Amino acid sequence: QVQLVESGGGLVQAGDSLRLSCTASGRTSSNPAMGWFRQAPGKEREFVAAINWSGSTTVYADSVKGRFTISRDNAKNTGYLQMNSLKPEDTAVYYCAAPRDNSRWRPAITGAYDYWGRGTQVTVSS
């Protein structure tokens, strides 16, 4: 079992930056892959970014490519999502997620993730 806790959300203005963190505890010795998803009010949860267990492979949604950067520090059991040039349409609850088995990892597929955090709110004002 892996527990995930997100932090770093907040209220910012358009053009500002935020860095989200996702700290894992429990069975973290397997260094699971990690994904970030977001859900805006009235919308379905959507993929944002993902990173493999070593950090050598990253995947981004087109809507955030060039603005967001995903990274991880396995020594700290923590993943990060650096968000720059934020836009009002980035407003959402952001969730981090991890698969139970890295062999099942499909970066952008919600159903490929078994563990989810409770989310952190990001609000971008215009």
Task: Please give a structural write-up.
By secondary structure, this protein is mainly beta. The protein has no helices and eleven strands. The chain has strands at 2-7, 10-13, 18-26, 34-39, 46-51, 58-60, 68-73, 78-83, 92-98, 115-116, 120-125. The strands form two sheets. Strands 2, 4, 5, 6, 9, 10 and 11 form a seven-stranded mixed beta sheet that branches. Strands 1-3-8-7 form a four-stranded antiparallel beta sheet, with no helix packed on it. A hairpin with a 4-residue loop joins strand 7 and strand 8 (78-83). The mean pLDDT is 95.
Q: Can you lay out the helices and strands and say which pair or pack?
A:
Elements (H helix, E strand, L loop, with lengths): L1 E6 L2 E4 L4 E9 L7 E6 L6 E6 L6 E3 L7 E6 L4 E6 L8 E7 L16 E2 L3 E6 L1
Parallel strand pairs: 2-11
Antiparallel strand pairs: 1-3, 3-8, 4-5, 4-9, 5-6, 7-8, 9-10, 9-11
Question: Which features characterize this protein?
Answer:
126 residues; mainly beta; 7-stranded mixed beta sheet; 4-stranded antiparallel beta sheet; 11 strands; 0% helix
Q: Would you identify the regions where 5 or more consecutive residues have pLDDT less than 50? A: none
Helix proportion of residues, in percent? under 10%
H/E series: EEEEEEEEEEE
Tell the overall outline: globular
Beta-strand proportion: over 45%
The chain-level mean pLDDT equals 95
